[in-house]
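Forgive a beginner's question, but might I ask you for the amino acids of a protein and the tokens describing how it folds?
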Amino acid sequence: IIGLILVFLFMIFVYRLPGLASSLALVIYTEIVLVILNAFDVTLTLPGIAGIILSIGMAVDANVIIFARVREEMARGRSVKVSLKSGFQKAMSAIVDGNVTTLIAAAVLWFKGSGTVKGFAQTLAIGIVVSMFTALVITRMIVFAFYGIGIRKESLYYHKMKERKPINFLGKKKVFFSISIAMILAGFVVMGVHSAQGNGALAYSLDFKGGTSMNVKFDKDYSIDEIDKEIVPVVEKVTGDHNIQTQKVSGTKQVVIKTVTLSLSEREKVNKALEDNFGVKESDITAENISSTISNEMQRDAFISVVISAICMLIYIAIRFKDVKFGSSAIIALINDVLVVFAAYSVGRLSVGGTFIACMLTIIGYSINSTIVIFDRIRENLKLQTIRTRDDIKALVNQSISSTLVRTINTSLTTFVMVLALFICGVSSLREFALALMVGVIGGAFSSVFLTGPLWYMMKTRIGSDVIKENQAASQAQPEKITANPNR
């Protein structure tokens, strides 16, 4: 709720009356999603909530794309009504392609995945379909209703912004590639150091490698909130595990506390801490080792699902954009985003548990959507401009990225705010999940702006520069002009 309120305020401040319309549409979107989850009795898991957060981000994204287009039309001097119609029409292709691409991934994850992966895919698919409906139908109806009742003042729909020259993103592509490679290598180096020290390459939680389960009988019936606020921090301090799972035993004063595998001395320290802080007797504590909840088969299914999803997205993008180079560069950027988040888990020693899979899947869905918007603008500009040389392509890519830059920043900011609210208000395990998501949101924005365009440019000019070759051949075939130079 806090995240949504902040997003509403941001949208109204930046986009004025259309921002208010999108906020009202987002309220309707949230209600529809909740009704569907209830109607179909969908079981909500943490990965499922991650899917909802991602779909909210994509719903906001769709509105940002539309209103950015409306701004562009009004900047050209067109009327409010014409600009609104044109804005929705021109935003259609980017919204549909971005959402369908993510929907394909959700479908593959649903059919091939298992456990938490299915939960994520289910809520994500519901959210995507509803977000497309609210953005293209509900938001449109609300905006035109405002216009229809006489709210037509131009300043309520648009405020003039200073026109900026295209930024030379491709001129610094080596710097951006170097930053990306450095971040990824840092993750692998830290993993190697931790592995050499015997601490494990990653901080696997009990979901992956099992752990210790303690059944503790307290002299007070603690509520779930009290357990999170009072008991969990004490156990965290002793064990160093920030992904502790707790569960109340119904009808008793017993609490089950699950941590990473503890040695005998570590168990004794936990017992002493519980005794000092809560007066628990050692005889009221029983402990046993438990196996992992995420099997090797589930891990393999998740990995295979992601690979198949990437292949399907590559095929769809190649067909829609009529160029496999778009799909290839998008997938490379996608791999970069996953590896950057992977590095964050390694360097920050974040717990790799059930939320890890949800986080990776969320980043994949979010990143590809941002990339599609930039590619849609490149595709549009390719139809409008004549390409003869590499410099023409370079200028086109720089122009396309620059014209969508504000939209990318705004979308990333609104999604970041949603996750930040989760980070501030959540318990420790949720904070780690939210922290990794925030890294992913920033990394996804970075790759969409600084990597995908340059990657496509390099493939276009070095691998398949057919247009350039044809134009060069045509220019060479033209007869030379005769000059008055006698030495020729």
